[in-house]
Amino acid sequence: MQIFGVDIGGSGIKGAPVDLDRGDLAEERCKVLTPHPATPESVADGVRQVVEHFGWTGPVGLTFPGVVTGGAMIRTAANVDKSWIDTDARALFSERLGGLPVTVVNDADAAGVAEAHFGAGRGRKGTVVLLTFGTGIGSAVFTDGVLVPNTELGHLELDGHDAEKRASSKVKEDHDLSWEHWGHRVRKYLAHVEMLFSPELFIIGGGVSRKAHKFLPYLEDIRAEIVPAQLQNNAGIVGAAMRAAETDRGE
Ligand code: BGC
């Protein structure tokens, strides 16, 4: 079975039909640049371009980098245009896509769902926490494979600051932090999350997951196992499609 997945990120809007049996893209993905300012109207136009590229006419799952309730309502917009707050994104995208059924899900939750089923968290019992390090820090918390949505652990307080303002990979780049310096911040952050959730496993997602060997050495006194995400760039697209499939089945 195939469902269309779209990942809305700070730099690009990427999408492709997803093969849900394999947990992978069924065709090469299409990407358009995220418009700036990334308002609901301009992003919806980008999404339409991506979906129309494939002539897709079935259900569509989309990620969003903020709290999303009920597969539809945007509640926060930490790193995107504030006009998203209280937008009914399902209605907006569905209307722009000529009435196709649409489900919207938090970006880290989508990546987590894909990793939990097809990647680093496959078959893992107990508490698993996926953290994505990018412009912000996203989180997805699972217990025995079941997601607790919208956990927003990137906004925990760390050293008197919003954690993502201390330990995201954007902060590493903006302040030119060494892997060691940034690794120590991430260690402190993981220790805090570990204190709250006692997970068996941390999955580290986002672009940095490809360079795990550079920072894993600084995380050694964390009790939980720590592994990089496996699906990398496509986790959001795959996870969004998986959530849309669940909605389509009425789950
Ligand atoms: C947002 C989260 C999002 C994360 C990663 C945070 O600033 O609040 O909802 O998952 O960034 O994009």
UniProtKB/TrEMBL annotation:
It holds the Pfam family ROK. This is Polyphosphate glucokinase. Belongs to the ROK (NagC/XylR) family. Gene3D superfamilies: 3.30.420.40. SUPFAM superfamilies: Actin-like ATPase domain.
